[in-house]
Amino acid sequence: LFCPCLIYGAYIFLPFDAPLLTTVSARLVYTLRCAAFATFPIVLGMIVSGISRLCSSALEPFGELHREVEIHRTYVSQSIHLFILYFFNMAVLATYLPQELLKLIPLLTGLFAISRLIFWMSYAIGRSFRAFGFSMTFLPLLAMLLWNLYGMFVLEPKNLLS
């Protein structure tokens, strides 16, 4: 319930509009540029993971990892997988959205980045707290997937493979 309220509030109250994008290629470039900001938590996680691995007191570098190193490695791995799914769904979503709703693309990108950072913090606190951050990432992804399937099979079934 938190994510739709957050997106709606940001959509109404943030004072920016998406540029006029008339072609599909312009929309995809816009989505690609927005998605570059979603990689910030992943790159930050890679840096912290490298530093924690470097500062680890393990005698064997390829041996069993400490919990602190494992947390960051797992976060980066899961974030990369979710980013790939998120990016492809955003790219498809950008082709179906009307012009007045293209403001959702940077908002969803920001939500992804913030939710991954929240997941990382809560995962470091304890495994039982990570559900909130994961659901903030996964449920918008699921909503985008359902909207994309609805758009492909119901709204424009004749253009499915073209």
From TrEMBL:
Coiled coil: none annotated. One of its GO terms (cellular component) is trans-Golgi network membrane. The chain crosses the membrane at residues 6-30, 37-59, 79-97, 104-125, 131-155. Keywords: Membrane, Transmembrane, Transmembrane helix. Signal peptide: none annotated. It comes from Tichodroma muraria. It comes from the Eukaryota. This is TMM79 protein. The gene is Tmem79. One of its GO terms (biological process) is regulated exocytosis.
